[in-house]
């Protein structure tokens, strides 16, 4: 299949902080490139110059919950308009670290934002667009927290939340996955990196043209 003539695919990676997405995203991108697919790799919040500025505010400035949710979706709208939608239309594939599932998990599940308000924002910002594949790295929060602590970097305001917050985030992620099992595929992030990589490559490889 000529990728220039077909709409690209949209793949997202999700999970609580410390679940181990980063190295597996790199492996997925490498696999796609080996198969001759042009890939754009990005992240949320961020992905654009404006999005990265909003990311700094979101990660480090205290704010009202609804302000937080609207800024998340503002960064996402810019990301979609400037990068994701043009890339997909041109036949490129997009691999993104987090998307709207993260907002549902963190702001609805973790912080208690109204699910109806989240749904309204999602419908406004990207009606009809969901990832073709979302890989959710599931891990008990206590293990994830130990992994984050071992990195030695200064935690952002989300990473400083207590274990109960991440339990709610994890539960919301799994609830979202249960509601969309064909799109959101759950991987046990407590396995060895090699086993996780094999599962990721099988899921991503299944989307590739034969």
TrEMBL record:
Summary of the function given for this chain in its UniProt record: Phosphorylation of dTMP to form dTDP in both de novo and salvage pathways of dTTP synthesis.
Cell membrane in keyword set: no
Keywords: ATP-binding, Kinase, Nucleotide biosynthesis, Nucleotide-binding, Transferase
GO molecular function terms attached to this record: ATP binding; dTMP kinase activity
Protein name listed in UniProt: Thymidylate kinase
Segment forming the signal sequence: none
Annotated organism of origin: Pseudothauera lacus
Pfam families per record: Thymidylate_kin
């Amino acid at each position: 299949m000529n990728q220039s003539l077909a709409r690209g695919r949209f793949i997202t990676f999700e999970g609580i902080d410390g679940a181990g997405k980063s190295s597996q995203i790199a492996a997925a991108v490498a696999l796609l490139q080996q198969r001759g697919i042009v890939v754009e790799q990005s992240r949320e919040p961020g992905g654009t110059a404006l999005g990265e500025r909003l990311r700094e505010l979101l990660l480090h400035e205290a704010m009202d919950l609804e302000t937080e949710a609207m800024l998340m979706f503002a960064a996402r709208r810019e990301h979609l308009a400037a990068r994701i939608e043009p890339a997909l239309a041109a036949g490129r594939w997009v691999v993104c670290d987090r998307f709207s599932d993260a907002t549902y998990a963190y702001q609805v599940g973790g912080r208690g934002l109204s699910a109806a308000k989240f749904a309204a924002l999602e419908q406004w910002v990207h009606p009809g667009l969901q990832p073709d594949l979302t890989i959710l790295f599931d891990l008990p929060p206590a293990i994830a927290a130990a992994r984050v602590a071992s990195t030695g970097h200064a935690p952002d305001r989300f990473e400083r939340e207590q274990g109960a917050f991440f339990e709610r985030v994890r539960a919301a992620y799994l609830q979202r996955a249960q509601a969309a099992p064909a799109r959101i595929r759950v991987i046990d992030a407590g396995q060895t990196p090699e086993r996780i990589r094999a599962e990721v490559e099988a899921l991503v490889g299944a989307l590739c043209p034969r």
